[in-house]
Amino acid sequence: MRRYGRLPHQPKRPLTPALFPLFADLRDRPVLVVGGGAVAERKIEALLEAGALPRVGAPELGERVHEWLDAGRITWLEGDFEARWLDGMWLVIAATDDHEVNRAVAEAAFERRIFANVVDTSELCSFHVPALVRRGPLQIAISSAGGAPMLARHVRRQLETLLDESIGTLAELLTRQREHIRARFPDLGLRRRFFEKLLAGPLPRLLRQRVDAAQADAWLQQALAADTSVEPVGSVVLVGAGPGDPGLVTLNALRAMNEADVILHDRLVSDEVLRLARRDATRIEVGKSAGHQSMGQDQINALMLEHARAGHRVVRLKGGDPFVFGRGGEELEFLRAHGVPFEVVPGITAAVACAAYAGIPLTHRDHAQSLRLVTAHCKDSSSVLDEDGLDWESLVRERQTVAVYMGVAGLDRLQARLLNAGSRHSLPFALIENGSRASQRVVTGTLDSLAETARQFKVQSPALLILGEVAALATPLHWFGAAPLQATVRSQRIDNPGAPRLHQAA
Ligand code: SAH
């Protein structure tokens, strides 16, 4: 192999190599890619996205690269690498699987003072391609100077979770309005202060709510005219924290918790989830769980209002989903009545989570075509089953699954009412206590032994009751935590002696 020149002696790499970060404008500029395979394909794609004019030098081209050639988007230099391919190039990327060829490309580029990147060979590179987080025109490049690319990728993934899509929309808006903003605040110091207020104000929230571009432009124009509309205004995000497993928190919930000044959380929200929140956010437990009303709804509302009016970003964090037996609706009505802006982040509700973690499909073509979510508590009864609030006849229909929230305290009455309304004695149930958490317990049996079984195993709140044929699948489909416990109590009555009896003593 011919040598095209000599790369500079590579001194022992210092621990803090100084790379000069730069974003290159490659639009309509020819860039050479040596190689036509899979690795080259990714580089060519990135160059095309940047508007560059890739020239691809290789004996043959992969399928996609060929398509780009046919579409006239690239030029092909057919054959083995020749130094003259570099003439007139702004950059070169060597992406062949032949180390000698890659090295020759790097040497020839060095001689001509053309920046070269050799894929996966950092010591041959005179420029590195960073790991990238992209939101519209906003790009965050991460580099470890080739020393620890896996770490750079790890940081990239972390940033991906932190920044939602609306940051890109914000960047587009600011790009569109750049001249207006400069004209309004020619002084750099004033402009900076305006931006600080703008970004701490309501604009990011408006963009998350997906206002359209025209509305966003109008809003910004107005803010420019009367600098006051960017004063920080407090707001409340109603966030569903899921059932307890921190892995079930959504990215939007995580972002909201990271931006919060104040977090008002229910007792149901697990410590593991709270640990994900911004460290210096003020946390207030407004502890609401069945039976223990340590803070009334009025007090919670007053707290939300007080903090929002003080300009804070308040996260109202609730177990499961805020709109499923979470009083989310009432809280939003209150906020709306007081003019406090709000957002809602849904969470995984207990029925969905407990079913998944107990191996109980909520619907199943053989067993259940519909799902009902009911609660045994109503607004004014904190511990007694609200018998009149439920339509019992509809609850005992076959081929449906019923998930009962907050039911542990009233299982005797629930069982009696369902049997009275005509439910099958042998209807399978599963009680899931602490669903999705390490301490999860699943107790199974049939309706006629429900209350007694719950007593036998001392089932505690939070627990969710699932009634329906699908509940019997908890044992065969068990995959998480301890195996399901089965009733050892005998039912008082056997209404279907031929059916398999899950609940009988072993
Ligand atoms: N908004 C919540 C429900 C609040 S009501 C949601 O969407 O899940 C509180 C009831 O939810 C509890 O009494 C219990 O029945 C159920 N629940 C919540 N988390 C649970 C968990 N991890 N395991 C079992 N049941 C749970």
Short description:
This protein has 506 residues and is an alpha/beta fold. The protein has 17 helices and 20 strands. The chain starts with 29 loop residues before the first strand and ends in a 20-residue tail after the last strand.
Describe the structure using short key phrases.
about 500 residues, alpha/beta, 6-stranded mixed β-sheet, 20 strands, about 20% strand, globular, disordered C terminus, binds S-adenosyl-L-homocysteine
How are the SSEs placed, and which strands pair?
Elements: E1 30-34, H1 38-49, E2 53-58, H2 63-70, E3 75-78, E4 91-94, H3 99-112, E5 115-118, E6 131-135, E7 138-142, H4 149-162, H5 166-176, H6 178-184, H7 188-200, H8 203-208, H9 213-225, E8 235-240, H10 251-259, E9 262-265, H11 271-274, E10 282-285, E11 288-289, E12 292-293, H12 297-309, E13 313-318, H13 328-337, E14 342-345, H14 350-357, E15 370-375, H15 392-395, E16 400-405, H16 411-420, E17 428-433, E18 441-446, H17 450-456, E19 463-467, E20 485-486
Parallel strand pairs: 1-2, 1-4, 2-3, 4-5, 8-13, 8-14, 9-10, 9-13, 15-16, 18-20
Antiparallel strand pairs: 6-7, 11-12, 16-19, 17-18, 17-19
The structure holds S-adenosyl-L-homocysteine (SAH).
The site of S-adenosyl-L-homocysteine has 24 residues, from helix 14 and strand 19.
